[in-house]
Specification:
The chain is 49% helix and 10% strand. The chain is built from 16 helices and seven strands. The longest helix is centred in the C-terminal third of the chain and has 18 residues, at 277-294. It binds S-adenosylmethionine (SAM). Residues 7, 11, 49-52, 71-73, 76, 98-100, 114-116, 119, 188 line the site of S-adenosylmethionine.
C-alpha cells in the first residue's frame, strides 16, 4: 500500500464517524484565545493536518481573519469541504496536501501543528518545511507532541507490538472487540502508521534546530477544560516564535509514578516477546481495554493496578518466571505471587514509599 493510501485508511478509521458541533468548536475557540490571546485577531491561521477541521473553525471563531487548512487524507478534505459548503463558510481554504511530498505555496501568521508530529518519521525536515510557511518573523507556531515516558506510551508501545491496523476492513472487524474508551484510542494509536514520543526538552531542541524560539508551554486542551492534570498522558504544547530569545529551559511533566510505569513497560515487553503472534494480538486488545476502561479522569492509579494484574495474568499463562523480567519488574512479579498466597511480599520500605503499585500489592491479596 502506498503511504498516501495508508493515510487515507488511518483518517477513515479515525474520523469516519466524527461530527463537528458548535459546543466543541466554541470550547476550542476559547482554548485558542487562552493560548494566543488577542494576537489571533485578524491573523491568517494555518491548520496543518486539520483532521476534522475543528481547529480551523475555532480559529475563525477566535478572531482569525482566514484559515488555510491542509491535510494529506482525501477523506478529511472531502468531509470538511462538504461541511464548509453546507454551512456557508467561505474563509477557510481547504487543501489536499503533504508538505513532505510537495511544496505548499501559502504563508500564515500562526502555524497550528496539532496532533501531527506523532505521525511524522522525519520531524526535522517536516518542521523546516513548515517554518518556511511563516509570513514573517512575527509569526507564531504551536507544536503539539506526545509525551515520552508517560503511562500512555507504555500501553501504546506495548499494544503496537501486538497489533496495528493498516486497512479499514481489519480495524472495522476488530472494532467490536474494544470497549468504547479503548476503541477511541485504538482507532488513532493503533491505526496510525507511526507513533512517536518526545520529552519537552527534545521537542524544544527540535524546534530550536529549525529556527523556532520556544516561548511558553501551555496546558493540554482537556486538562485546561477540566482543570485537572492528567497523570497518565501529558502531551506537550509549545508556543514558538521566530525571533529573540526564548525559554531558558522547558519543564517536563511531573510523574511521581514513573517507577511504576517503567515496571509495567518492562513487564509488557517481556510478555509480548514470549507470546506468539496470535496471542500478542489478543494481549494488545486486552491491554487496551483494561487500561482505558480503568482510567479515571486525571488519574493513573487504578489503571496502573489493572494493567499490572492483566500483565500478571499473561505472565502466568505464558509460564514466565519472575526472574525472566528485568530486575525492577521481577520484584513486583515475585511480590504479586506472594500476595496471591497472602505470604510476606518482601517489598522494602523505600519501595513502598515510592510506589503506589507496591503499596497495593502489600495491602491486598491478589487473584489472577
Ligand atoms: C491525529 S490526527 C490530528 C488531526 C487534527 N489536527 C486534530 O487535532 O484533531 C492526524 C492528522 O494528520 C494527517 N496527516 C498525517 N500525515 C500527514 C502529512 N504528512 N501531511 C498532512 N497531513 C497528515 C492525517 O490525515 C490526520 O488527519
Amino acid at each position: 500500500m502506498t503511504a498516501a493510501a495508508e493515510l487515507d485508511v488511518y483518517a477513515e478509521n479515525m474520523f469516519g464517524f466524527e461530527q463537528l458541533h458548535p459546543r466543541w468548536i466554541e470550547a476550542c475557540a476559547r482554548y485558542l484565545r487562552h493560548i494566543f490571546g488577542s494576537s489571533i485577531e485578524g491573523k491568517l491561521f494555518l491548520d496543518y493536518a486539520f483532521g476534522r477541521g475543528n481547529w480551523s473553525l475555532a480559529a475563525l471563531r477566535a478572531g482569525a481573519a482566514g484559515v488555510v487548512a491542509i491535510d494529506a487524507a482525501a477523506g478529511n478534505v472531502r468531509r470538511f469541504s462538504d461541511y464548509c459548503r453546507e454551512h456557508g463558510i467561505a474563509n477557510i481554504e481547504i487543501l489536499h496536501g503533504d508538505i513532505l511530498r510537495e511544496p505548499v505555496r501559502r504563508s500564515a501568521d500562526i502555524l497550528w501543528v496539532y496532533g501531527i508530529l506523532p505521525c511524522i518519521a522525519a520531524p526535522d525536515e517536516f518542521l523546516a518545511r513548515l517554518s518556511a510557511l511563516r509570513r514573517d518573523d512575527d509569526a507564531l507556531a504551536l507544536l503539539y507532541a506526545y509525551d515520552r515516558g508517560s503511562l500512555r506510551q507504555v500501553i501504546v508501545d506495548a499494544a503496537r507490538q501486538g497489533v496495528t491496523y493498516d486497512s479499514e476492513h481489519s480495524f472495522a472487524a476488530d472494532s467490536y472487540l474494544f470497549t468504547p474508551k479503548a476503541r477511541l484510542r485504538a482507532r488513532d494509536d493503533l491505526t496510525a502508521p507511526l507513533v512517536t514520543w518526545f520529552s519537552a526538552a527534545s521537542l524544544a531542541g527540535l524546534a530550536a534546530r529549525q529556527g523556532m524560539v520556544p516561548l511558553r508551554q501551555c496546558p493540554d486542551f482537556r486538562d485546561w477544560m477540566t482543570g485537572r492534570t492528567s497523570e497518565e498522558f501529558a502531551p506537550h504544547h509549545l508556543v514558538c516564535g521566530f525571533q529573540g530569545s526564548g525559554l531558558d529551559n522547558v519543564s517536563e511533566p511531573e510523574r511521581p509514578q514513573a517507577g511504576d510505569f517503567a515496571v509495567l513497560g518492562a513487564m509488557a515487553d517481556t510478555v509480548m516477546a514470549r507470546a506468539n503472534s496470535e496471542a500478542r494480538r489478543k494481549l494488545a486488545v486486552g491491554l487496551f481495554n483494561t487500561h482505558f476502561s480503568a482510567l479515571s479522569p486525571g488519574e493513573a492509579g487504578d489503571a496502573v493496578i489493572e494493567d499490572f494484574l492483566f500483565l500478571m495474568h499473561a505472565a502466568l499463562r505464558l509460564e514466565i518466571s519472575p526472574s525472566t523480567f528485568d530486575e525492577q519488574a521481577s520484584f513486583y512479579v515475585a511480590a504479586a505471587l506472594a500476595a496471591a498466597r497472602d505470604a510476606p511480599r518482601h517489598l522494602s520500605a523505600a519501595r513502598l514509599a515510592a510506589s503506589p503499585l507496591a503499596r497495593h500489592i502489600e495491602a491486598n491479596t491478589l487473584r489472577f
